[in-house]
Design a protein that fits this description.
Number of domains of chain A: 2
Number of helices of chain A: 13
CATH superfamily of the largest domain in chain A: Acetylglutamate kinase-like
CATH architecture of the largest domain in chain A: 3-Layer(aba) Sandwich
Largest interface: A-B, 35 and 35 residues
Shape of chain A: globular
Strand order of the largest sheet of chain A: 3-6-2-1-9-11-12-10
Structural class of chain A: alpha/beta
Radius of gyration of chain A: 24 Å
Oligomer: homodimer
Chain lengths: 411, 411
């Protein structure tokens, strides 16, 4: 008998019919002898409806009252799901974030969880009840309603699992797990049975939008086993655990997946005097304009000057280019150039740490296909390259094939 | 400078435009130097939408989870109204029933208020804030969300006014006050400037559905001056106060209003043995069938037997008649008869207490119009008669005219 925290997102509870289906699914787990705490989001469309109402009143609505408004969305779902469970003869009890109580800081619209008082939930579980908790919401120390920001329901699930020392936190979504790469690009892409928190973070931030990054960080920090599953299909999903978990029992693949990002743009400033603080002088004005910078590389030029390249979201390309041209004038740089028709391809895997030559194998695979690499960046468990956007599918397929990801014999 | 509690119902806040209009109205009162606590209902249609969702899950949905669901309706309104006030530059703060905290018993769906902790509200008022409170809801001692039952927002307003010792509780509705009778029947019907709690109770229960009866009782008990006003028009409305309030300053009218009820049906059992307990033997089976009995009269017959007549809602007529026929057989009564084409007319007024002959003047007025009286019932401040339904308009107009209600010279 295990204690499982499950989280169902907005699409999974998007209609009365789907809520009924979720109730059936929950009861299946219950009947296997598990204790269940279920976190739910607002029914899909509801948060948008409420946001729209707020905008009609005040286009800049935010803060305390926006949280009071938006939290009604999940409150509706917890009530309906509890009714559906009760109708099936299973005692159930709903809790708002404030009722649990999920204590947060007072940063309305983007609060962080400080602590969870899980006593009520434990008592309900002892009484055999299924507990249904509103995701995305909490209260601050003064009893004001707060929200964790959009998508925060994943974080609620993980935080509850940590507080209750649950055996597993299961995130039900519209995909059936984490894949070696996007199946729409590579038909042979394979669902991973297991992946580490670190790999998941690299995969998520690189564009495989399965889980909220914050929830994965939280799960890693508190070592909560996290499982991504489909709301609509049967299956084991993908289990996300810490690096060390059962290391011996699984033959670790060198590379877990190929991530990619279409929305990149590259900017380069050439011939910058190579003096201390020059990186800040270049990137300071960009971040002052609230433009997020992704990859950054700096090469030393031949003449004691330096070349500096970075990538931004494609939507920010024009604005970043204008800022960089101003900076170039100030610094007396030789030239500014840019390219908004590029993409980023990354190989991710903790096995990289113990295997030499992974990066060069990646470059070899790409070279064999005649794909020119414009920029390279590496981390402990990831190698990213920037290439012309026309090579995206070709590059991903070549890497997926070259690293034998379609072959599941190692699992 | 006064402390005013205002309550706006579902129609008054039925759209974003109406919420904006309510915000303007509130600010008008605020700018006159008043402190304001505003109670709001769910936007019209919202409670029905939520109830419908619950019914799709479980047609018999009720109890704890239904309250969790329905209370989201008012929570949406308090957030939107607070945003509208803030947008206009007026600091405002919303509270759910649980946040206030409005402590109730644990009778879900029909809870009663036990106490109100108004400390937060007082602090907000001292800081110059307008306080916006969700009507209809509270929490029990264990923190479970409760509702006061439909229409309970009036009660929330009155209870808050009592707890805060407010100078007045203003109920904004879609009529501009309490009238001497229904203006759709008597064009000359006049808005009353003032009426007592007792009169209002008689008027309300007799069919002038302006205020929730429970709220009027509550206001009377705690002596909270209650004012009914229009959300949509300017005006002083009708002030409902205790009998003794400023008695000398107002020349009390003998009759305040003419109430009537179209939905009555009359049942008579003749020739019942006049023995102790016979009333219970007749009415017991009726109330066991959950049929509410309104007027009851009993006459002593000539032969030591008795005639017994009562009225029920017209919808319950057939069921009550069947029950009565069974009872008549059991009791050996002579005859059962009924009439579901009757109506009830009532004159209401505290002035009756000190003026003799009001009832006979009523009978005289009706007789002059050739209206036959089928049944009479009297109380301290009310005389009701049952007449054939075809006389309803004629009777109401004759009484309104005969008691000089159109003439407002006495106020």
């Amino acid at each position: 008998m295990a204690l499982i925290v499950q989280k169902y997102g907005g699409t999974s509870v998007g209609s009365v019919e789907r809520i009924e289906a979720v109730a059936d699914k929950i009861i299946g787990y219950k009947q296997q002898g598990n204790d269940l705490v279920v976190v739910v989001s607002a029914m899909s469309g509801e948060t948008n409806r409420l946001t729209e109402l707020a905008k009609q009143i005040d286009p800049r609505a935010r803060g305390r009252e926006l949280d009071v408004l938006l939290t009604t969305g999940e409150q509706v779902t917890i009530a309906l799901l509890s009714m559906a469970l009760q109708k099936r003869g299973f005692p159930a009890r709903s809790y708002t974030g404030g009722q649990v109580r999920i204590l947060t800081d007072d940063a309305h619209n983007k609060a962080r969880i400080l602590s969870i008082d899980a006593d009520n939930i434990r008592r309900d579980l002892e009484l055999g009840r299924i507990v249904v908790v509103a995701g995305f919401q909490g209260v601050d120390a003064d009893g004001n309603i707060t929200t964790l920001g959009r998508g925060g329901s994943d974080t609620t699930g993980v935080a509850l699992a940590a507080a209750l020392k649950a055996d597993e936190c299961q995130i039900f979504t519209d995909v059936d797990g984490v894949y070696t790469t996007d199946p729409r690009v590579v038909a042979e892409a394979r669902r991973l049975e297991r992946i580490t928190f670190e790999e998941m973070l690299e995969m998520a931030s690189l564009g495989s939008k399965v889980l909220q990054i914050r929830a994965v960080e939280f799960a890693g920090k508190y070592n909560v086993p996290l499982r991504v599953l489909s709301s609509f299909e049967e299956g084991e999903g993908t289990l996300i655990t810490s690096d060390d978990n059962e290391e011996d029992s699984v033959e670790q693949a060198v590379i877990s997946g190929i991530a990619f990002n279409r929305d990149e743009a590259q900017l380069t400033i050439n011939g910058v005097p190579d003096t201390p603080g020059v990186a800040y002088e270049i990137l300071g004005p960009v971040s002052d304009a609230n433009i997020e910078v992704d990859m950054i590389v700096q090469n030393i030029g031949a003449d004691g000057s330096t070349d500096f390249t970075f990538t931004v979201h494609r939507n920010d390309y024009e604005a970043a280019l204008e800022i960089l041209q101003n900076t170039a004038e100030k610094l007396g740089a030789r030239e500014v150039s840019g390219n908004n028709r590029i993409v980023k391809l990354s190989i991710v895997g903790v096995g990289m740490r113990s295997h030499a030559g992974i990066a060069s194998r990646m470059f070899e695979i790409l070279a064999r296909e005649g794909i020119n690499i414009l920029m390279i960046s590496t981390s402990e468990i990831k190698v990213s390259v920037v290439v012309d956007e026309k090579y995206l599918e070709l590059g991903v397929r070549a890497l997926h094939d070259g690293f034998d990801l379609a072959d599941d014999s190692e699992e």
